[in-house]
Amino acid sequence: SDGCSSDLRSPCRHNPPMPQTKKGIFFASAALLFWSTSSATTVWTGDQIGPWQFLGLSTLIAGLAQIFLYRRLRMPYKKILLPPPKLLALILTTFVLYMLVYTLALVLATKPQKVGVNLANFLWPTLTIVFAVFLVPGSKMSPRLLLALILALAGVLLANLQGLQELLNAPPPS
Fold first, then answer.
1. Confidence band (pLDDT; 50, 70, 90) for 1?
2. CA 132 – CA 118 distance, rounded (Å)
């Protein structure tokens, strides 16, 4: 044996564990890379195989990958497949609905509308902060946060004005 365990949490003498801060930066960078390519790959793949086939295939791959990774961390199947009821009811439902609606909007939109749909999606970080102020205990709106939200919303709307106009004024698909 080379002294390395298959357990991702145990250190290996050949590959010392990555410091926690570097792990966070690494995974945040990977998430940013994947997220930045998600709309282009969604549109391309959806156009190739169809929206429902894409949704089914992508959720199957994501679910299997998640089960595999959780099992590598030695999480029991019961914990993986049966999350707490509050998590399942609220968070997972809204996230799955978001992915269904966003993916269908991207795949079913006309070419000019695709840009508008993708640009409108950039409102979610700003709206996440707005909802957090009202839904997260202990959060409150401060004048500084309100100013930041107004500037962020204005920036998103200004940057996406043409795309949003195309989305709203495009003729319906025939």
1. very low
2. 23
Nearest to residue 106, comparing CAs of 58, 158, 157, 161?
58
Burial level of 160, CB count in 10 A (0-12/13-18/19+)?
A: buried
Alpha helices in the chain (DSSP H): 20-49, 51-72, 77-81, 85-86, 93-108, 111-120, 124-135, 143-159, 161-169
Residue matched to tokens 């025939």: 174
13-27, 56-70, 135-149: which range is least confident on average?
13-27
- Taking the model in full, what pTM does it have? 0.55
62-77 CB burial, b ≥16 within 10 A, e <16? eeeeeeeeeeeeeeee
